[in-house]
Specification:
The chain has 14 helices and 18 strands. It starts with a helix and ends in a 6-residue tail after the last strand. The model has no long low-confidence stretch (mean pLDDT 89). It is 39% helix and 21% strand. It has three domains: 160 residues, no CATH class; 81 residues, no CATH class; 113 residues, Immunoglobulins (Immunoglobulin-like). By secondary structure, the chain is of the alpha+beta class. Helix 3 packs antiparallel against helix 14 and helix 6 packs across helix 8. The strands form six sheets. Strands 10, 11, 12, 14 and 16 form a five-stranded antiparallel beta sheet that branches. A four-stranded antiparallel beta sheet has the order 15-13-17-18, with no helix packed on it. Strands 3-4-5 form a three-stranded antiparallel beta sheet, with no helix packed on it. The protein is elongated, with a radius of gyration of 32 Å. A hairpin with an 8-residue loop joins strand 17 and strand 18. It binds iron/sulfur cluster (2 copies). One iron/sulfur cluster binds next to helix 12. The site of one iron/sulfur cluster has 14 residues, from helix 12.
């Protein structure tokens, strides 16, 4: 129990803070796909229905101009944290890191006792039947968890009740996309988390390569105190451990910081591309230095602070990223408020006009979209300077929730009245009224009526 408390419940350590953060993060990721506002998902990018749902509003395929705002907002938000805290995304926010902690430290380590969290780089030795069985058990359990994780991810793209009913139907032929996304992602997670591991962070992830561009001397990074520690020549000796020039500093060369590192680097050689800023080396060195009665040799701090100067949170680059994220956030809400849930479109039908029995007719197609969660009944009306009449549709139009209807619109005017139009085409406006509130039109659109004199 004491060991458990020390490893998992010591809130002074970054490891415990990170574990608490991971639990909250996982809970939020699991719950968000089920949360609704006004009968819509809080956030869902529906692939099957080609629309984005955000805070009670639906953006359909024709309104996906809002998507770049979400992408810019997320990117600016991550960049702001990168400029402030270095690779915090990698160590604290990236699903790859969280799932590696679950698989390696929790499943293979704390539960199946195949690994020691403080010595992550020691290769697994499957030299007994028990270890062999526990290793394959870890892969089996992880495969089950990978199915759950990829299902959770799928729910951001396919509404959960719909996803469950499709999976329960087992109809791969009708829904190849849904099954492929789920199973393909699961396969990737099994391979990546169980076998590729932190090599993904070191060699594959593009963000790892570009993050250093956003650092400056006021960015909090994992820093080894070279003034107090033993000096290294910057190169790596046997098993990648630092090669010391002298041993007069505080570092005891206990290697606790190296053994605990998930990416297998020696932070005493300075900040390296492989560092994902998990801060486990900071926790590892703390008790060693505490026993010596001196401050930690490794800290999450800025180079400026190491030189005894003050670091600023508020500086041009952090303010710029925050401003971009904020502007995108505000714009998303502005677009959301201005967007119409019910809309009308008008297309002229084939041919321009028809003359029959002293009557001139033009035909069109009306496209009515109901993006609300309720069935709606609409009345079509006309605003025209002349005696233009609606021949079709004569009746009110009922549209189910979330639907689009294409309806023929036929307008007619007696040929004798065309004298008033001065022989020219004239403009009119089609309006639709929601019968729940028939006082003001819910949308309107202009059109042109063609007359014989336009030939
Ligand atoms: S050097 Fe430290 S912070 Fe960086 S990955 Fe290794 S243990 Fe984590
Ligand atoms: S944990 Fe601290 S004392 Fe031990 S090797 Fe690392 S820096 Fe040196």
């Amino acid at each position: 129990m004491d060991k458990f408390k020390k490893n998992f419940l010591d809130f002074k350590t970054f490891t415990t803070k990170r574990n608490v953060f991971f639990i909250a993060y996982t809970f939020i990721a699991l719950v968000v796909p089920f949360l609704n506002v006004d009968g819509r998902r809080v956030f869902m990018m529906s692939f099957l229905h080609k629309r984005l749902e955000f805070m009670g509003t639906v953006f359909d395929a024709s309104q996906l101009y809002v998507l770049p705002l979400f992408i810019f907002m997320f990117a600016a938000w991550v960049l702001m944290w990168t400029a402030l805290g270095g690779r915090v995304w990698c160590g604290w926010g990236c699903p790859q890191t969280i799932l590696r902690v679950v698989f390696r430290d929790l499943l293979q380590g704390a539960i199946l006792k195949l690994r020691v969290r403080k010595d992550k780089n020691r290769p697994l030795k499957l030299n007994t039947i028990s270890k062999y069985l526990r290793y394959y058990l870890s892969l089996l359990i992880w495969s089950g968890l990978a199915l759950v994780v990829s299902a959770n991810l799928s729910w951001y793209f396919i509404d959960p009740p719909e996803w469950f009913s499709i999976i329960a139907s087992g109809d791969f032929a009708q829904y190849p996309f849904v099954f492929s996304l789920w199973l393909g992602l699961s396969g990737f997670l099994i391979l990546d988390i169980a076998f590729v591991g932190e090599n993904f962070c070191k060699y594959i992830c593009p963000y790892a390569r570009i993050q250093a561009v956003f650092f400056d001397e006021e960015t909090a990074l994992v820093v080894y105190d070279e003034k107090r520690g033993n000096n290294t020549d910057g190169s790596q000796g046997i098993k990648n451990f630092a090669r010391f020039i002298d041993k007069s500093g505080d570092c005891t060369d206990c290697l606790a910081c190296v053994k605990v590192c998930p990416t297998g680097i020696d932070i005493r050689n300075g900040l390296q591309l492989g560092c994902i800023e998990c801060l486990e080396c900071v926790d590892a060195c703390e008790p060693v230095m505490a026993r010596k009665g001196v401050p930690n040799l490794i800290a999450w701090t800025t180079y400026r602070a190491m030189d005894g100067e003050k670091s600023r949170f508020v500086r041009p680059r952090t303010v710029s990223y925050a401003a971009i994220a904020l502007i995108c956030f505000v714009l998303v809400f502005v677009v959301k408020e201005l967007k119409k849930d019910i809309s009308l479109n008008l297309n002229h039908g084939a041919g321009t006009y028809q003359v029959d029995d002293g009557l001139v007719e033009n035909s069109y197609f009306l496209l009515i979209t109901n993006r609300t969660t309720k069935e709606k009944t609409f009345r079509v009306a006309l605003k025209s300077p002349y005696e233009l009449d609606i021949i079709r549709p004569k009746r009110d139009i009922t549209l189910p929730a979330d639907s689009v209807l294409k309806k023929a619109l036929i307008l007619q005017i007696p040929a004798s009245k065309l004298v008033e139009t001065d022989g020219k085409l004239f403009k009119f406006t089609v309006e639709i009224y929601d019968l729940d509130d028939p006082i003001t039109p819910i949308d309107e659109i202009g059109g042109k009526f063609f007359t014989p004199s336009q030939e």
